[in-house]
Amino acid sequence: MRYAQGGGLTDAERTTRERLRLQAVGCLEGGQKTAEIAVALRISVRSVERWRRAWRESGEVGVLSKGSPGRPRLSEAQIARLERELERGPLAHGWADQRWTLGRIKTLIGRLFHVSYTVEDTWRLLKRHGWSWQQPTRRAIERDDDAVEVWKKETWPRVRPSRRSAGPGSSSRTRPGSR
């Protein structure tokens, strides 16, 4: 079913539609004709036929609401548990380093709650609950700034690739001057 507003039914509207389907099933059980039910309930004949088919195949369960088609949501208790698990760190969950990535958090949510999120939805979930991407506030303890400076001044100029000469060239791939 398509909706002009681009959205689906609210929970209240879904309940109303379910009640209507159950009322139609009651009429079907009473032996009323499809067209009569459609007129009485102010719905299309096609909808009554569809509901009749679902009722025949699955009984009353076939016409009950399937629930919201939206993406799965974590409850507040699940969010709190996720936060505790994130604080334990990636090592506690089997990853080799201490870096949380969206892919890892997505996998963790799947393992803990059996709910599938996309990477984008994982980012939205984290952002919605006040988490943000992080960078280390200080450098590694093992870092030797003097050794880094020596490497930049002495080693890098020797291993850096040389620039091409500033001679005449050609944009053609087949001419030797272009290489």
Tell me briefly what this model is:
This protein is mainly alpha-helical. 51% of the residues lie in helices and 0% in strands. Mean pLDDT is 83; it is low at 1-6.
Describe the structure in your own words.
The protein contains 7 helices and no strands. By secondary structure, it is mostly helical. The two termini are 61 Å apart.
Radius of gyration from CA coordinates: 32 Å
Order of helices and strands: HHHHHHH
Unreliable runs: 1-6
Strand content: under 5%
Q: Please, how many helices?
A: 7
Mean pLDDT: 83
Span of the ends, CA to CA: 61 Å
The biggest beta sheet, please? none
* SS elements, strand count: 0
Percent in helix: 40-55%
Give me some keywords for this one.
179 residues; mainly alpha; elongated; disordered N terminus
